[in-house]
Design goal:
heterotetramer; A: Glutaconate Coenzyme A-transferase; 5-stranded mixed beta sheet; 8 helices; B: alpha/beta; Glutaconate Coenzyme A-transferase; 7-stranded parallel beta sheet; 3-stranded antiparallel beta sheet
Chain lengths: 275, 295, 275, 295
């Protein structure tokens, strides 16, 4: 989230929280990075496209972890179906190619993660809630590639369109994706590099305090109060000294690109309806 | 080369109660649905399913009481929500899930295919997935490097695959499209392989594009021609997923009566695959899906 | 080498030893087997084609370990170049596909091996002769896929167009391909299945005594004497009780197929010139 | 995507003395020969080469004194005999060979590509190859199955690849042909990747056949257009190997004077790649090789 000259256009007068979240996620990607997306990932896909259209034209997108640099077009109804990667430069075979590239450690170093539960140390859970693993209260979809990405030295960017105390919890019921585990240097001691970088919700942006690895409030969105954030969070985030800044609004140009070019059919709103 | 062409019913007889069945599938994509319906109709029981990402196929198998275990990465119909019957099966303890990361599932199947006792990954380290799984264990690098997660070989009894074209010897060809791992590795790991195909062609047709052949016939035990055989999942580039049928299932899944009616209409009822295609909308509907009018 | 009705045509009046060796190797393959070939393997390629044209029409050939069931045609100047696998049904990718199929253990279970040195227990050497491994008297090409095939439960069929005491030796200078190692059950004790089945040379056919795994004379070619064989062999092969049979001559039909259909350009003779 | 297009000379500067260089090659096939000649001309020393099967490229590098070690399966020019200079290099102790089975080389490179400390194989068990190699060791299966041979990760400094077409961003495409492992895994294992290509095309040309793209541009550091860049090896389907030049080399290899004259004529002498093509027979010769008149 370094300051970026391409974003220095006036803030939008008319914006919504999905657009703000997309703008924040877009700012996480730098020119020359590579990134893929998974299932039901409308906000990350929009963010990657926004980054490419603004400050990171040489960001490489592996659509659905399959199609290399498809021709730009409106986001379709699925982020894991063929229309997403139409006219790609390459179909990346998954077994030998995609996971080899992802394991390598030099490429695809940033990954956006949606998680049903996320705890104060950035551990994520998409597996089970409550009960026993083999007879849980709630069976979630499963960890899929996430359990890999969390342990392979990637920088993880969590997004959550529905910030509430059931999704942001003191301790996850099950670690399906390694964050900072118990905090401090526990991750490091297991030989893991990388880790969670940022959490972008519909209320705020959080990062991680460098030593303790406790989640830390970085900014609160415009029109949201600190109290609202704390009430909606299942633990106490570290507060930055000297008050919590307000998340910058998306610029007018960013909002225009999202609405007119990237997602004219409003697929991104599905993420908010879903929960 | 030997002839492997047969019927859905004959091919399904290669699957026995209790078998571990590797199923090509990816949320809303490319599942050999005609073969799945045949297994349900034939009343298979206590199947274990292996998928990368299980979709509607898994939910039908769960609703019909055909399965009691799953090995894979995730189960989801993506935009059509969770697979509710699968989910309730796990929550009630009727279905046991071995949850693996993608590299771990590929390592287990890769080891099975290569007759190696295990393959390693560096994924999952630090998660809770390792300790609860007897098929995973931490292993020191014998050269003094970082430890790995050893993933025990998995050899499914049978793999079910759907493809664009095949010859009657079981040589399997795909149109250029996303090649998911289930195509590349499951059929080599499994003891038996059943292929359904949009079209059976003369072998000489395959010779035009030998780079598109992904499986040699000698690994295949049965090949069956089933046009639209992945419906209601998509089969790129030929046709899109059937959103209407997915939504109808998601709605029906809430009540036992509706589930029974749904399965009667679309699985148990139709006498054969043609009757199924008529039941889901026939030629007109298929033509729309071929234009990717999926909604 | 079970008796085969397709071979019951009259023996050729006019035959040469290359044709006899091809006929013997062809008889090792059964209908429904799969087999590949490596570099400079004219006799095995001719044998596979002969088997397909006679008793094993459903034998599957992976030409050069690359091209599945190419259209039949005269053997070209290389057994590892594209003309060999023209118009194949499939190009088998080597890393993920070929070696996965070969490691599996259910397919490609028979493999023809050419070796610079072969010892009485069927161990083969294509690595180094004499001196130290890192400063040998003779550096041979290297083991390539052979070191795999010897340990993966395959049935190995050795061919040697130049039977002499330097190529058939008491003990190989270096084991680049595991035969029966020190003999007896040593191979079994390492958990290895399969192993050498047959040795076909320009003088004789040898197999392996079941218990000791010593090489055993199975038949001597027509017009070759037992003494010639023993003189040309660097060890004493086990002799079958009751005298050594004569290797059956190739049939007239086999010779015709080899000369007119399979190898009209006589590429097979290169194997004899080479040594 | 970033632009990676450059010249042979610039690209060769990415290879330093002492580097471990993974070289696409298969007896008489598909070696990036133009890049090999450039390295010889630039006088690189103490290179380690990694090949599946090394051919004439390796013999030239050995004759020119550029290499002191080799990791691979075999070295042979098939019908044109052994690589005599490479062979004498090993026999004299000037070149050290790490001899690996095919699965072992693929395991070492595969581990390097996947950032795993090792990968296992079941090949080579019982041979003498394991004990003499510190990069191989027997390892017990942690699940109680049979032991495996652990193959330590190999990360070459640079990989040299030749392809049919690429765009200026380094996205690499092949025509349908045999895909040797050096294409699939070496470039992912190596720290840097240099691609020579028969043709640089607009990216939109690649979009017509995305299934034929085998490497994404982001793994590639330099791409150079070099038509006939694999000569005198073959580059199927475009052209066959040059038997005459292979035979000329095999004859020259017997005498030091002849070797020097040969290298002067075909490697050191020609001012650039066009001059090389003229020296080896020019347009007419290339046209014959394109018809696979290789003799």
């Amino acid at each position: 989230m370094a300051p970026d000259p391409h974003l220095d256009s006036p803030p939008a007068g008319d914006w919504t929280v999905d657009e703000l979240m997309i703008a924040v996620l877009a700012s996480c990607f730098e020119d020359g990075d590579q990134a893929c997306n998974g299932m039901a990932s409308f906000l990350p896909v929009a963010a990657l496209q926004l980054a490419k259209l603004t400050h990171a034209p040489d960001l490489v997108w592996l659509a659905g972890a399959v199609g290399l640099e498809p021709r730009p077009g409106p986001i379709p109804a699925s982020t894991l179906e063929a229309p997403l990667w139409r006219d790609a430069l390459m179909y990346v075979e998954q077994y030998g190619d995609f996971w080899t590239l992802a394991l390598n450690g030099r490429w695809l170093q940033k990954f956006c993660v949606g998680a049903a539960q996320l705890d104060r140390f950035g551990n994520a859970n998409n597996s089970v809630i409550g009960g026993d693993f083999h007879a849980p209260k709630v069976r979630l979809p499963g960890t899929a590639g996430l359990a890999d990405m969390g342990s392979l030295g990637k920088q993880l960017y969590y997004w959550n369109p529905n910030h509430n105390p059931r999704s942001l919890v003191e301790t996850v019921d099950f670690v399906s994706c390694a964050g900072y585990l118990g905090g401090g240097d526990e991750r490091e001691r297991l030989g893991l590099t990388g880790g969670p970088e940022l959490v972008v919700t519909n209320l705020c942006v959080m990062d991680f305090e460098p030593d303790s690895k406790h989640m830390r409030l970085r900014s609160v969105h415009p029109d949201v109060t600190l109290e609202q954030v704390l009430d909606a969070t299942g633990y106490e985030p570290v507060l930055p000294p000297g008050g919590v800044p307000v998340t910058p609004k998306p610029t007018a140009e960013q909002v225009r690109l999202i609405r007119e070019v990237i997602d004219p059919h409003g697929m991104r709103h599905r993420e908010f309806r879903r929960r | 080369m030997r002839v492997k062409q047969t019927t859905l019913a004959e091919a399904a007889s290669l699957v026995s109660d209790g078998d571990t069945v590797a199923l090509q599938n990816m949320a809303t994509q490319a599942a050999p649905m005609a073969m799945v319906r045949e297994l349900i109709r034939q009343g298979r029981r206590e199947l274990g399913l292996v998928c990368l990402v299980g979709g509607i196929a898994l939910d039908w198998l769960a609703a019909a009481g055909c399965m009691n275990r799953f090995i894979g990465n995730a189960v989801s119909m993506e935009q059509f929500g969770l697979a509710q019957h699968y989910r309730r099966g796990v929550e009630s303890g009727r279905i046991r899930m071995e949850e693996l990361s993608e590299t771990a599932l590929l390592a287990r199947l890769g080891a099975g295919a290569r007759n190696l006792p295990f393959l390693p990954t560096r994924g999952m380290i630090g998660t809770d997935l390792i300790d609860i799984n007897e098929n995973l264990t931490m292993l020191d690098d014998p050269f003094g490097g970082p430890p790995v997660v050893a993933c025990r070989a998995l050899v499914p009894d049978v793999a079910l695959i759907h493809c664009h074209r095949a010859d009657r010897h079981g040589n399997v060809q795909y149109e250029p499209t996303a090649l998911w791992p289930d195509i590349g590795i499951m059929p080599k790991a499994a003891r038996r392989v059943i292929v359904t195909t949009e079209q059976i062609v003369d072998s000489d047709v395959l010779r035009v594009n030998p780079d598109r052949t992904v499986l040699p016939g000698f690994v295949v035990d049965a090949v069956v021609e089933v046009p639209w055989g992945a419906h209601p999942t998509s089969f790129n580039p030929l046709y899109g997923y059937d959103a209407a049928l997915h939504l109808a299932w998601a709605a029906a899944a809430r009540s036992d009566d509706d589930v029974a009616a749904f399965l009667d209409s679309y699985v148990y009822g139709p006498a054969d695959h043609d009757a199924y295609l008529t039941a889901v909308g026939g030629v007109e509907r298929m033509a729309a899906l071929a234009r990717w009018e999926t909604g």
